[in-house]
Amino acid sequence: MSDLLSPATAADAAARAAGVEVRVLTELAELHDVCRLFDTIWQSDPADPPVTRDLLRAMTKAGNYVAGAFDATGMVGACIAFFGPPGRREMHSHIAGVSRAAHGRSIGYALKLHQRAWALDLGVHTISWTYDPLVSRNAYFNMAKLGGLPVQYLPHFYGAMSDGINGADDTDRLLLRWDLTVPGRPQPLSLAGAAVALDRTPGGEPVIGPADGRTLLVAVPTDIESLRRTDPACARRWRIAVRDVLGSLIDGGARVTGFDRAGWYVVERADA
């Protein structure tokens, strides 16, 4: 996001760069397309879909945010958010997804900038959402590209989810808050002198280290989604290790200040 562009202009530029049109949806047929898109992405149990058309209909009638991204083939992405307590001027972005065929075009970025411009126009200052702390590309996108910051670790937040993404893994999540009033992106991270609180072995196993020092690094696996398929026991060890280390640090008052492209959460301890 350029500091020189208005939120609406930045959103339009991101959509053009991604080759899509992003717009708010209200028609039943389009809401049904959102449900079908998410079913395809998450490969959910038909008895437990990510969203339903009647829920989206009610949300849009109540003034909440449902938007889709379209290219020449049709809808390739969508995002849903609802309002939080009025006094907090906050929205919660519940679910967003892009079709596999459209990956790599920054359509998710275009959706988030559209959501940001829409929210600011209504006087909303913050958008929150949850994400799996083990998915490194999402952590990098949320923190390094958008500038959001995790504020709470939520163990097994959604309970068991029978879909093609979460599998049998616990649904631990980080709650992230995105301050819409802060322009631009965060500054580059400095990892000099940081202690490694959670490391990776050459074989990809988690190794817990001493959480000494003010600045700490917490590793995540390179590709947790592949690891869940090829070595679910190792994926489970990563889940527990990140929960024990990162979750305990956040619960103890430490702040996550960034995520490095190499796969490290950067954590600052106020009590060091």
TrEMBL record:
Coiled-coil ranges from the UniProt annotation: none
Matches recorded under SUPFAM superfamilies: Acyl-CoA N-acyltransferases (Nat) (SSF55729)
Protein name: GNAT family N-acetyltransferase
Organism listed in the record: Paractinoplanes lichenicola
Taxonomic lineage: Bacteria, Bacillati, Actinomycetota, Actinomycetes, Micromonosporales
